[in-house]
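TL;DR need structure tokens for one chain.
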Amino acid sequence: MSIGVIFVVLAVAMVLGPIMLMKPSGRQRQLANLRQRALELGLQSRIATVTGDLKSFTVAPTIAIYQKRWTDKRFCPEQSLLLQRSSFTHEVHFHGAWDWKEGEAAQFSLSPELAECLDKLPESVLAIEFTPLGVGLYWLEKGAQVDDLVEVFPVLMNWLDGQGVLENVRDKR
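>> reply
TL;DR here they are.
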């Protein structure tokens, strides 16, 4: 083999190597497809840092939050509420393994619809947040499809509305 051919092969490898490294992996393409599907279904996704008790469920430093925004109602708490999955089931929890972060929402009652909804959530959903922007699911992006999760949002939003903590936005205009 001549030295010219070796140089050509090395040059091609030096050009193609970095290009191939920039190509998204299979997992990255899967996540992009999940997030695109979420947008099509009216959900927004964002990435947040894993904090507190949720660290016991994942070694990843971040987690995806899929959120459905309020449309005609508004949640006006002093602070956001976080209903999170615990690593164990206990009778003092809000429901099974689900409990409020630091007991911040003890005044809320559990409805049969909410209990069924929480029981059906995949183990990869680690928390539910209620904020002035909407309802969000902390999801590891595995163990379910976005189409399955989108069914949960109306149940969660109707439950919170039944707790008497939402204001009608249209009435204020």
